[in-house]
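[[Per-residue structure]]
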Amino acid sequence: MIQRIQTIYLLIVALLGAVLPFFLYLWLDADGQEFFAKHHIWIATAFYVIAALAVIAIFLFKNRQNQFVANRLNMILNLILLGFFVYRSLNLSGETLVSEKGIGMLIPVFSIVFLVLANRAIKKDEDLVKSVDRLR
């Protein structure tokens, strides 16, 4: 059913991936210019794929195993994006002068947290269905 708590979590992930990276800057470069996700096509594409996977997972409510797998795939993509951000922040030019990382770099962390919460709720639903099936 679509009115479950994991739908709320997945909707938050979709909003985090589709909206916030384009309003919150990811980092400041050595010149002090803000770098948004829209300035690099691969980062913007990764955020859109994260949001699309979350929306797809919302509509996979009839098959909880596929929903769980879609969330795991989304977590892997978030971890790859987070790894890129960590690599990029450690290799910023002018690091001795400027050490400004934006709040947008934490978006994958928040997305992973909400995906874990959604997977817990999916697992709880699956366990409930299995326990009811045992009674029949």
